[in-house]
Design goal:
208 residues, Rossmann fold, two-stranded parallel ribbon, 7 helices, 14% strand, globular
């Protein structure tokens, strides 16, 4: 069963008409889960008088394929999911690498950003424990780039789950911004993009 969001709560939490986004990765074809999420995204935006951005999140340059991108766009057109922005021209992360470089430079001036040569084996789990934090490694080719998270709690409101409280430094440790192959990570790229595109509401379908 598809769970319904609290639209009245959304209207109270978001100032003005919301801006949301549908952001598939061209690493495969659209599947039923994508379609359900598109229904959710467009439905909430239209119910609240908002806008939908289409953004192709091709940050994974190894697995992204032009044929997948073309198929995704064709399927969305055929299904009638017309975005308010990002279709003509098509909005792709790979078209604006300077945006992420500039964001990284800005972050370096305000936070502890450091080079990291850890492999998945070195980390040994989901949480990065700061192994390279004090090693003063440069962000040379072949190394990742991380930012240190302060030990503080952040709060958010999920329209299905209600108020949420998390401590990122305890859950995932220092965040990887760019991997050892030089690719921007999803967590960094999507945050930069949502900020610069003015996204105020992230819609994601959930079933019970």
């Amino acid at each position: 069963m598809l769970l319904r969001p609290d639209l009245a709560a959304a209207a109270r939490l978001v100032t003005g008409p919301p801006v949301t986004r549908f952001a598939p990765s061209p690493t495969g074809y659209l599947h039923i889960g994508h379609i359900v999420n598109a229904i959710y995204t467009w439905g909430i935006a239209r119910a609240l008088g908002g806008r939908v951005l289409l953004r192709i999140e091709d940050h994974d340059r190894i697995r992204s394929r032009a044929e997948y991108e073309a198929a995704i766009v064709e399927d969305l057109d055929w299904l009638g999911f017309v975005p308010d922005e990002g279709r003509y021209p098509l909005m792709r992360q790979s078209d604006t690498p300077e945006i992420y470089r500039d964001a990284l430079d800005t972050l370096k001036r305000t936070a502890h950003v450091f080079g990291c040569d850890c492999s998945r084996t070195d980390i040994g789990g989901e949480r990065y424990v700061g192994r390279c934090r004090t090693r003063a490694l440069s962000d040379a080719p072949g190394r990742g780039v991380r930012v240190q998270f302060d030990a503080k709690t952040v709060q958010a409101h999920d329209l299905l789950a209600g108020p949420l409280e998390q401590t990122p430094s305890e859950q995932c440790g220092d965040l990887l911004l760019r991997d050892r192959d030089g690719h921007w990570t999803y967590q960094f790229a999507v945050t930069v993009d949502d900020f610069r595109h003015g996204v105020t509401l992230v819609a994601a379908a959930r079933t019970s």
